[in-house]
UniProtKB/TrEMBL annotation:
Any matching Pfam family: UvrD_C_2
InterPro entries in UniProt: P-loop_NTPase, UvrD-like_helicase_C
Coiled coil: none
Domain UvrD-like helicase C-terminal: 12-59
Classification via Gene3D superfamilies: P-loop containing nucleotide triphosphate hydrolases
CDD domains membership: SF1_C_RecD (cd18809)
Protein name: UvrD-like helicase C-terminal domain-containing protein
Length: 87
């Protein structure tokens, strides 16, 4: 089939959530993992859904989404303790 015979369409691209940071799209589709994973956190989900200006669609198990929303990223840099220590 010749490209000219195809119906009108727009190119689509797949990005990871991390690669999409700083991007803004009219519409985003987010594919969740089939099983819960510690990498799926509230902050990652926020980054994913906030890329869309008009519409976002999530695909995946509701239980995985619910668990991801409940999980917060824990940062353990030790910076707070270092700043509180007198020199």
């Amino acid at each position: 089939m010749l490209p000219s015979a195809l119906p009108s369409h727009e190119a689509a691209y797949a990005l990871t959530v991390h690669k999409s940071q700083g991007s803004e799209l009219d519409e985003a589709h987010v594919l969740l993992p089939e099983a819960d994973t510690p990498l799926l956190t509230r902050e990652l989900l926020y980054t994913a859904v906030s890329r869309a200006r008009e519409r976002v669609t999530l695909y995946g198990p509701a239980a995985v989404l619910a668990r991801g929303v409940q999980r917060r990223t824990r940062r353990e840099s030790g910076l707070a303790e270092r700043l509180q220590r007198p020199d």
